[in-house]
Structures are given as structure tokens and as C-alpha cells.
Amino acid sequence: MNSQNTDRAKALARAAAYFDDGRFEADLAALVSIRSESQNPASADALPHYLNEALMPRLAAAGFSCEINETPVGGPFMIARRVEAAGLPTVLHYGHGDVVHGQDAQWQEGLSPFALTRRGDRLYGRGTADNKGQHLINIAAAEAVIAARGSLGFNATWVFEMAEETGSAGLAAFFKAHREDLKADVLIASDGPRLQPDTPTIFLGARGALNFTLTVNLRNGAHHSGNWGGLLADPAMILSHALASITDARGQIAVPEWHPTSLTDDVRAALRDLPISGEDGPTIDADWGEETLTPAERAFGWNSFAILAMKSGVPEAPVNAISGHASATCQLRFVVGTEPEDILPALRRHLDHHGFTQVEIIPEAANISKATRQPRDHPWVQRVEQSVIRTTGKAPHVLPNLAGSLPNDCFTDILGLPTVWIPHSYRGCCQHGPDEHMLVTIAREGLQIMTGVFWDIAPRGRP
What we know:
Blueprint lengths: L2 H18 L2 H10 L13 H16 L3 E5 L7 E6 L7 E7 L20 E3 L2 E3 L7 H18 L5 E7 L9 H7 L8 E4 L3 E2 L6 E3 L1 E2 L1 E10 L5 E2 H4 L6 H12 L18 H7 L23 H6 L3 E9 L8 E2 L2 E10 L8 H11 L6 E4 L8 E2 L5 H14 L4 E3 L9 H6 L4 E3 L3 E2 L10 E3 H18 L6
Parallel strand pairs: 3-6, 3-7, 7-19, 8-20, 9-18
Antiparallel strand pairs: 1-2, 2-6, 4-5, 5-21, 10-17, 11-15, 11-16, 12-14, 13-15
Helix pairs in contact: 1-4, 1-13, 2-4, 4-13, 11-13
């Protein structure tokens, strides 16, 4: 083994030791204990605290210069830079320290969202999977490389935001205002889940997401169903039929403009052998969704429509009356090849064509999350993939895009960067729900994967 391989192996061993001796768990516990719920106004003070007290001292100790930026909307941002030499590649990294509501009362007995608890191979706590545990892994990996090599071997710019869970409000404007400060060659970051727990995953983009509300508002108040039944139109029935027109009985989308144009032969080939089932979580319904597509094509290569919530009357205390109002909160997850600006106009045309002119479409106030996708043959993708194989001996699952959504368009469209994401979670992690957790096996392997990736970014010939 030559000296470079020996030094790389030492860096990987250092990362593994950080996990094995309990330091990773202790550091993650400190991060989880900060109640940084961006959806909860009562936790507003925790957002800057996370950046100033939890991240900044550690990054400064690793040689990063850090600055906090307040913005008119959303939470604060931190930019951390480590510039080693002109001419070296610059890698942009991203993470978010905010979390969703803790949902304290809904966790298993003995668990608390803001107290890290280890049970078997699981580390429970809000933010373990999304995203505190993931960016802690990457920080520790960078520290392992610096300790073993004496340098990273590349220039690094890291961005941390505190409003991802409220739609990353202000992120696009922040990136536009700091475009020069954020110049880089590539984004390499971690969020989202692996496709399978025992196999590393790389994904190259994300599906977009658009939330909207459909309402039918016919009259004020509710009216006795005996006196008025058969005489007053029922808004819940009208809305139910309108919703049913958007897909067929197995969930196949019936709005023509919502059929993407990007499920090409090369995308199908990339998705062909990807497993979907076989891990913790619900069993997939094989007879749901687009009938002519495989499960992988439905999740990563196609659009999906969901009804997130519905209401008419008072479900908690129903009375014998016809309500005057009905509403449903809906969502379209969409891939590249769908025109974002035409999603709601196309729905309007569809509803009108089917006679549902009484149904109003109300867009969500937050900005739309756009769909992105990076070509598989991009040099940075191949470079990272080979590094993962070198470290683990496993061929990673490489996804054209995540099934979920991320503010990836800020990196691709505003900063013009290729994007490579290496997740350290898995789909059964209970992200956004009670009992969120991180698997210790993925955390330990993730530390070594990222240490290897950061080590291999340095130009050849550097020690």
C-alpha cells in the first residue's frame, strides 16, 4: 500500500473511531437538545442559537471563517469558508439546523424528541435524520481529513440555513444576493434517505412540489339535512367528484399536462434495477399509480398527486346539517419535464372541462419547489461514485432524482452547479413524524464514506 492509500486509510479509521468511542453520539445529543423548530414561533430564539453556539465554534476550530446573515424572511443563514489555495476546486456544502414540530406527546414511551436515546441500532431524536445527524457526519468527516492530511486538499464553502422546514423562505434571494460568495465547482451535501439501508445512495436532483387548496364555498353556515336535503347542493360531494376526476380509481393522473416528458430510455435504464421494497415501512401497493410503470419509475420518474387533508363540516362533532363549505389540501410532486407555471392553470382547465367551475384553486403562499436532475455521466458524479465504491466496496444506488423535494434548484438554477447528494438516512426513519431516528450502521458507514469523498477530491499528487 502506497503512502497516499495508507494516509487515506488512517483518515477512514479516524472517522470510525469518532463513532466507536461515543463522541458522535455525544455530539449529536447536544445538537438534538436544541429545540430549533422553525415551524414553532416559540422556538425562534433557538434558530440563531444553533448556528452561533452549536456550529460556529466547531467550524472555526476546523479553520473555517464564519459569518451569520439575517434575512427579512425565513431564518438566519451561516456561510463558513475554508480557503486553502487558489486553483484548487471549491466544494459547496449545505445543511439545515431547523426541524419540524417535536410532536412530544406522540413519541413512544420513554422517548422524547429533544433528548437523544439509543435503542438497539437506532438513535432516536428530532433532527437525527433530518438534518442534524447528516450534517454532523459531514463536519466530522472534514475534521478527519484535516487531522490526517493537515488540510482538506480543496477549498470549501458551507451554507447552513434555519428555515428549510418552512419551505426555505429567503434561500433563493439569499443565494442571488451572495452569488459571488458562493461560487464553487460542485455541491456535495447530504439530506433525504438511502433507497435501502445497507447500500449507499447517491441522488442527483429532486422532485418538485406544489401544494394548493381546492375549495367549494356555496353559502354561509350549515342547514338542516332533513329540511334541505335534496334541495341544497352539497359542497363536499362536489369537491369529492372534482378530486376523483384528477386521477382514476388507482391513482393514475388524468390531467394531461401533468404527464412529464422526461421518462426517457436513459432514465428508465437508470431506474431499472433499483429496489423499492424490502425495508422498514409500509408494504407498497403494487396496483396503485401508473399501471404501465414500474414502482421505481413511479417514484423517481413520474408525477404523483396526493390529497393531504380534507374537511367539510366539523368532523370531530358532526351534526345533521349540510355544510356550506368543503376544502382539500392537495399536492403534486413532479419531475423534470413538467412545466411548473402551467400546473395550476392546467388543473383549472381540467376542472372547468369536467363542469367543476365552482371549485376554487388557492395556491399555497410559499414558493414552489422546482424539479431538478443531474446527468449520471457528469464527471463529478462519476468521481463521487468511484470514491464511495473505493471506501465501501459497494456499488451505490444512483438515482436521477430524489422522490421527495429539496431546494436543489437554488444550487442548479441560481448558482449553476452540478449537485451530488449522499444521504445518511433511510426511508423508514420516521422523518417529520414521531420516533424519528438514525440507524447507527448508516451513521458509521456515512462517516467513512464522506471522509473518503473529501479525501479523494484533492487533486492527484497532493499528499
